[in-house]
Amino acid sequence: MHSFSKQLLGLHKTSLSYYSHLIDHCLSLKSLNFSKVIHAQLIKVGFNSHTFLGNRCLDVYFRFGNTLYDALKVFDEITDKNIVSWNICLKGFCRFGELQRAHNMFAEMPVRDVVSWNSMISGCVSGGFFDNAFCLFSKMQIAGMRPSEYTFSIAMSLVTCSCHGKQIHGGMIRNGMNLSSLILGNSLIDMYGKLGCVDYAFCVFFTMEEVDIISWNSLISGCHRSGYAELALDQFFQMRSTKHSPDEFTISSVINVCCNVPNLEKGKQIFAFCLKVGFLSNSIVSSAAIDLFSKCNRLEDAIRLFEELDWWDLAVCNSMISSHARHDCVEDAVRLFVLTLRENLRPSEFTLSSLLNSASIFLPAELGSQIHSLVVKLGFESDRIVASSLIDFYSKVGLINYAMKIFANMGVKDLTSWNTMIIGMAHNGKVFETLNIFEALISEGIAPDKLTLAGVLLACNLGGLVDEGLTMFLSMEKEYGIVPQDKHYMSIVDLLSSTGKLKEAIYIVAEMPSEPSSMIWELILRACVIHGDFKLTETVAQRMMQSEAQSSLPYLVLAQAYEMRGRWESMIRVKRAMKLKGVRNVYTFKADQLQPHRGKDIYLILRLLCWEMEAEDYTDNLTN
User: Fold this and answer.
1) Residue 25's closest CA among 44, 38, 41, 11?
2) What is the pTM of this model?
3) Which of 174, 474, 475, 564 could form a disulfide with 479 if both were Cys (CB 3.0 to 4.6 A apart)?
4) Which of 365, 92, 569 is nearest to 106 (CA)?
């Protein structure tokens, strides 16, 4: 006799147990049609208004139904609704993405428990409303509801700064949470790893009574994210000495560490281990191995591994497409993309993003527009990664109005989206529009990063906005906590130099915490020549000769300046010093083109000569 039939044997068809067993069977079958049959029988015998059976039937409808109508009908039929009834309905609304209706029901609930709060918080997270989730988390504690382990695990997944993370950690201690438990311990390790607080992650790890493979994986990943690649590898080898065996997530993380260092030799050791234990049959591991070879400039090995796989899936195809694009083999990337479509492998946001990033550099705008059409067809236009890639693509090909339209239509914008739009605007000469977008970002309460401010300074530089540029540069660290880096210095030095404020530019360079790059000195040297400041030209050129020993630019510029002023001995001395130090222009062959080894210097010198001629009215003399 069937086991289910045995369970029903001896149960009367009008008993609660009978219908409870029927619902159990419905849950195991995952059948909506069977659910409706059971519901009909409950109505027939009058049990549809029973709280326990009504709740169970409601749960079935929310799990397997495709509309809210049937579930809400069951909810309305329950005469005495208890907290479980409300919570099931609340979870159901969140599962269907009906967050507004969930909020309305949450407000109407006569009583709320920790499950009610958790449902609303996780619902907001699923919908991308992270600020609302944090707000609910705070209100929950103000209302006197003690968070559960699940509540804290959700909150930890949302933390974006170490201060906030430590506050949540302290709240867990105050609420008497068992921090040595695997769930909370692993969540804390993962949170601190993402925040770059590796020391705190290790402290949690060492205080846990028991660790598992997830603990090790979180620790390794945290070390890697925080920039401690060697430490991440050390933890992997340390784990190998324990009873815990690495899984596919461990291996993929370690391979990614080797990718980003990059360290091909250690990567090969991990790859050999994968072959030995049979991990290459796992899609995650195979994808990571393809990335390893590609990022270590072994594209041929990545292709060989891909071709030797006797199966295809989207992850390995994505890795191979991005590998082709990374090595400028864009036609191969597009060809493989077409093959994935023929194999009915639906492209992901990463596939489309990789193609758009390569299309903006190597392929015509028409192809990018075709990819955009595919994005719309597949319903990815609201995806932040794809939308940002589209903005970047249209910005790079000069179609900035298309980029602005996509940005305006984005629902939830992250910092990457804002940065892409700001930098795209700046590169397309939309100076004041760039500053307006930056103001909009600040008004949204989003903290800018170094890329944001680099884009704003670039716009100020291109627009010649000295006051705005200086104000932004001088307030970077105080206002936004961002220490200026080389690209920020380059923009402000270029802005000041090009507008004739050479003393201010020199002062800022003198205040740099590290030795200025050759590009910064070149910017000042160019400005000195343009503005006819011979004394400063001489000083900067001599400084460059010391810091950039093999650059021909300062020697040639200084020799030219001496020659124009009739200082023949000084000119000969500079050329002799250039010869003695072995500085010369070396020509190389590349891609069927003859080009100078330090081509930038040659072109800069030509520009300098043109500017000098304009300054001295040489062009007028030539035409007369």
Assistant:
1) 38
2) 0.60
3) 475
4) 92
